[in-house]
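Lesson 9: reading folded outputs for more than one chain in a single document. The general rule is that every protein is listed as its sequence immediately followed by its structure tokens, and records are never interleaved. Here is the first one.
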Amino acid sequence: MITLKHIVAATDFSEPSGAALTYGRALARNFGATLHVVHVVGRVPTAVYGADAYAVSMPELQQELEDEARKQVAALVVDNDQQPIPVRQVVITSDAPAAAIVDYAAREHVGFDRDRHTRTGRRGTLADGQCRRARRPDRAVSGADCSPSGT
């Protein structure tokens, strides 16, 4: 039997990601797992002006976007159940959302134990599969930006 200790639910605040979050919440509740709700905020581009190539970054705008994303994630994880599940709210800044989510899962050790599943004939970890899909945009989730540069 599989025991899940961590569930990652990535969100872009769309209806499909809301459905995935509902499913992730149910899995976390059934297994007594921690739910990681992850949102990736794109980087605000640096603007270059004039012949001298004067570069202007917009850190205030970037901070506002990240703060607003944190508020939206917090609103998603409200759990009025008598026994709330453990939840980690995560906002990441990156131009490559799929890769950022996979990196987060790897850093937090979310996924299957590679050695145990390799011995039983299964192929690698969940994160390994996500990495393969992140490198192959044709196999990625519809609408996901999986290119290394985010373009």
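And here is the second record, again sequence then tokens.
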Amino acid sequence: MKVLALDISTTTTGFAVIASKLKLIEYGQFNIKDRTLSDTMYALGIEKKVIKLATKYSLSDSIIEDVYCGKNVKSLKTWCRVHGAVGVAWYKKYKKEPVFIMAMVARKKIDIKGNAKKIEIQLEVSKRYDLIKSNCYNKYTKKFKTLIKNKATEYARIEKEIKKKSEQKIAKKKANGRCKYQIDKLSKQFEEETGISEHIADAIVLGIAYFK
């Protein structure tokens, strides 16, 4: 039994083909370079690639990361349209409903924190499937831990030097924003060096979670 897991975003869709014994058969991502495409044309492009993979591997099911209702309404609209279109295309071809799983639910099923950072998930799946060398894994793990430690140190400094709680809150929010930016940058650096993007990592997590 083999399944296709998809992490659909507004510009890039990560995919992973995983077998019942959790064997990772293929992974990658569909990049839509033309940002002027309508949601319909974007969905059509993904549909064709999905059906091609399904035919190549005789897949039994598709697992799609469920829509996250964030604050960006424009992105949410695109996600909903594309998710729906891909789901309908799968049903028309195979007469089976796709399986939708929330990212946080999938992570918890395979013992990853629901609120794990992108780089944490990239590192975890890379380690599980030996997708990168140990020195690369250790390098990025160290960098991530350093960023988290620096954030804790900055929080401690803020609490020591700033007495008003309201001002502490503002300072901590800024420090958290800087840390988040650095962590996201680290995730991109990891992708550039290894080819394992956040979207590929999330797709792999979905595939594993399906069998749990």
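What the second record shows: The chain has two domains: 2-129+197-210, 134-194.
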